[in-house]
């Protein structure tokens, strides 16, 4: 992250709503599958970000990074995902633990996982990081920069590939969203319960934003 933020965790991918809608009356009576995964570049070595004039870089806690794509994907509960697919007659949510290696597999309009379900979607969490501003003196941050950054935030890019009722090609949605974080740098570096609680709250808020984006695009 340069200029305004700190990378916390690793680059990766997996999430969403209204994913499988609108669907035809026939598809609404059938089983729909939603596959969720996190993705990134596990074979690459990234240089750690350096502190800058605005935000201090926070290293991962001893137990592992808090705000990663895999953590965001795991924080999205089934109940939240089901409310985002109200037109699906039955929604089967499949979570994939292995990181999708983007050096080996691209999002190229083909299904990421083997399935014969005509109603199918891949939900991917991509490029997740946290911006933490609590360590920066207000006089250094300044009014303009503070307004632009908007305080500490969790930023996530969601990618959705959706096949509706057996269509050959998917409809693809991609959007970067962000939501406020209340945790401090100390919370993140120690991997505290507060940081993990903030992860769940901010991830749900980001998913809600993405779902609204998908719904708006689906009606056009």
How is this structure best summarized?
This protein has 220 residues and is an alpha/beta fold.
Overall average residue pLDDT: 74
Strand content: 15-25%
Structural class determined from secondary elements: alpha/beta
Question: How many DSSP E strands?
Answer: 6
The main pleated sheet reads as:
6 strands, mixed
Written as H for each helix and E for each strand, in order along the chain, the element string is HEHHEEEHHEEHH
Identify low-pLDDT runs: 1-29, 143-148
Helix fraction, binned, reads 25-40%
Q: What's the alpha carbon Rg, rounded to whole Å?
A: 18 Å
* Number of contiguous helices: 7
- End-to-end distance, in Å? 34 Å
Q: Tell me, what's the shape?
A: globular
Description:
This protein is of the alpha/beta class and 220 residues long. It is built from 7 helices and 6 strands. The protein has helices at residues 25-28, 69-75, 78-83, 138-141, 143-149, 185-190, 193-218, and strands at 31-40, 90-95, 100-101, 119-131, 153-163, 171-180. Strands 1, 2, 3, 4, 5 and 6 form a 6-stranded mixed beta sheet that branches. A hairpin with a 7-residue loop joins strand 5 and strand 6. Helix 2 packs across helix 7 (193-218). It is globular and about 50 Å long. Residues 1-29 and 143-148 have low confidence and may be disordered.
